[in-house]
């Protein structure tokens, strides 16, 4: 798929990675970029077409699909991190995070799949995380939601192959955004993450490992759980000490 002359819709485009996606899409020649947010007045990027969208509200998702019938590239970026654990954290918070980070993306895919098919197939980008593959105290709800979103992405990729829709999973460690502001470690620039993802779409890739951290985590998956947890513990200690 060629980003130039595409019509893209980006969720959570008012800040962070979503804003960077929308900006790089414009700079790379997209014909139109729908920038969506729950509060559309917070989108401040010139040149985009702003739409209100709450990905956890099926009616809002349906309205966005009706308002954007020319989309050929869907970027599922919107997400939350609540800092909640699974055993001791409030279950309603865990459910809300899952509704946003997995079911929200799935709502978008289900509504926009016919649009993409009608526009030649197109592509979907799901912004995931290296935490699709590992957890940690204070972030296990997030790990659950990203692992579920990874499995969902792998499933819809198979289901949408017949209509010619590319589904690209994008994994990263930390990006230099508000969500990661409290982590004093190396982070990928949002524009670099957006470029890595869009380069992957143009190359027809099913998966993009956008930084060294995500590549390292993925490489450890063949280990036993005990070996994996020990390796991740050492890696996290080294990361914080750097």
Automatic annotation (TrEMBL):
Statement: the UniProt record of this protein carries the keyword Transferase: no
Matches recorded under SUPFAM superfamilies:
NAD(P)-binding Rossmann-fold domains (SSF51735)
Keywords assigned by UniProt, alphabetized: Oxidoreductase
A Pfam cross-reference name: adh_short
Coiled-coil segments, which residues? Answer: none
Record has NAD as a keyword: no
Q: Which PANTHER family match?
A: NADPH-DEPENDENT 1-ACYLDIHYDROXYACETONE PHOSPHATE REDUCTASE
Family as reported in the entry's similarity comment: Belongs to the short-chain dehydrogenases/reductases (SDR) family.
The name this protein goes by in its record? SDR family oxidoreductase
Q: Which organism is it from?
A: Streptomyces levis
